[in-house]
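In the laboratory, one determines a bound structure by crystallizing the protein with its ligand and collecting diffraction data. In a computational setting the workflow is compressed into a single prediction: the sequence and the ligand go in, and a structural description comes out. We illustrate the idea with adenosine-5'-triphosphate.
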Amino acid sequence: MAQRNLEKQLNILDYALSSLWRRRLKSLSVLLVFAAVIFLLASFQMVTKALSDKAREVLVHTPEITLQKMSVGRQEAIPLAYRDRLAGIFGIRRVVPRIWGYYFDEVRLANYTVMGMAVEEMPDGARLDTALASGTMPGPAGQGLVAIGQSIKKALALEGRTTFSLFRPDLSLKAFEVSGEFSPDTDILTNDLVVMNLADARDLFAIPAGLVTDLCVYVANPQEIDTIAKKISETMPSVRVLTRPQIQKTYQVVFGWRSGFGSICLLTALAAFVILAWDKASGLSPEERREIAILKVLGWQTSDILVVRFWESVIVSGLACVVGMTAAYIHVVYFAASLFRPVLMGWSVLRPDLHLLPRLAAGDILLTLAFTVIPYLAATVIPAWRSATVPADSALGG
Amino acid sequence: MLIELSGVSKIYNQGRANEVRALSDIDLGVEQGSMVCLKGPSGSGKSTLLAIIGCIFPPTSGRAAIAERQLARLPDRFLTLHRRETIGFIFQRFNILPELTVLENITLPLLPLGVPPKERRQRAQELLARFAISHRARFPAGQISGGELQRVAIARALINNQPIILADEPTAHLDTALSREFMEIMQQLKEAGKTIVIASHDPLVFEHPAIDRTVTIQDGRIHVP
Ligand SMILES: Nc1ncnc2c1ncn2[C@@H]1O[C@H](COP(=O)(O)OP(=O)(O)OP(=O)(O)O)[C@@H](O)[C@H]1O
Ligand SMILES: [Mg+2]
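The predicted complex, in structure-token form:
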């Protein structure tokens, strides 16, 4: 009995496959539209996922509190002496000066982010040394040493050499030597980065002694970030105090808006697709009515016909998922989501040659499936119920 | 009696504005192994009567026993189960699916019965050989001749070896030669022990010597001359 039932299900599956094959043009067009919807949805989801992972990576390396001096709404250099005024605030672990700026290389037409860090003063984990693929971070003694990111390496076309020069504001040349190279895995953070010690950065940008661009504050207990930030603002009203949670929130707002906008576009596409599927499935052609009537009069149960429809839909949507998901993965990983650039890449932190590698989680894939396969199954099998109520006697007579 | 109807009536769309009384108070018995012709003008109720005998729907009132099973108030599911074991249908225009091959068409009734592919093919090939159309097995049914189509339709009605064969206006679209051939095959089936009911107003059918009895229907009643 169980054997018979299994054989029956196999027979019905076989019939579903052959009827898909018979209507291969129609099946293929539905499959392609469906795959396109899944492709869009999955690409979008993978990009979103990869970007938020990247954002988290960036934030890990952001100091807990950053202090900048503001004057008439613009940032200007902050005196190192301000460190003394922070000494009285309880809970501050360390205050590290930083000089950074953008350097436009007129020869190679490229923009570099130059970061002068007092590596020796920074706490573990904030130093970026974990991002190195090879070599070492330039220390205070290593005059002219730099660690560079991948796109800088490309732009400088070093090819075995380790030395290069950049211009000071007075157009005199300053020589550098590469001591370390950042890993491509950390590209969102390090791609266009040139890290050197504080003295070299001061020299390159011609910043007077006693001044830096900002002060990075590391606290003993991350729970107290807000309290300490508040105390700093009270002590030094002219200083802008940026905390890591604030930066995080800004990212989320910008990112949330963009992904929300994208979702609306996708949902519209999805709705159009469901309507199309419904329309296709519910409008029974005379041939389909005839086929159903014949099958019924030959002894097929209504449920058998529904199962045929179900298998047809499962096969079409299953194939569409495989095709759509694979295409999405290739699109995101190998083409860096180039179709979504206009929507997503306005996000200023992202470099144009961003390398995305989404970590595929089962939950995300299931979510995409839930938003595509289930509506499709509903849109095709539910109207098929009506089709299965075609009376068998309509196969009789002329 | 393999087919036993007493006081059978059928009302379509009962209680609604488009109510139609198609059959009234039909008494009919058909012996196993006999061949009966239902004759009558268009709209008299032949197809409706055939549908009740064929377990497609139960009568609105009255008793109908087909192969010792009472149809009254039998749910659709069980009607279907009984139908596929008992009834082989041959339709006007044959109701063959043109995109399927001849072999696929013939084996359609076996799919929900859970008959495995090998056995299906074997049974179909026996029938194809018997009706001399083995060479057409892999052809799409839409591409074969009218005579071959007719034999495919008969083969499909026999595939599950059902005891009762019903045919609704089988010769309406056939020329004289094919109509004669059809009746010859029916005669062979009758001799092989099948019980056959044919609805037709074609003299080639109801005047055929193999017909045991002709029942005339008029306005949904059996007409006794
Ligand atoms: N599904 C249906 N719904 C409503 N009325 C129907 C239905 N089928 C048949 N009828 C009506 O029932 C009556 C008998 O129809 P039936 O098809 O049984 O006649 P018939 O003798 O087979 O006619 P024909 O020779 O034209 O095939 C007719 O008046 C017909 O209009
Ligand atoms: Mg009729």
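The pocket of magnesium ion (ligand 2) is lined by residues A 397; B 46-47, 168 (CB under 6 Å). Keep in mind that any predicted model is a hypothesis to be tested, not a measurement.
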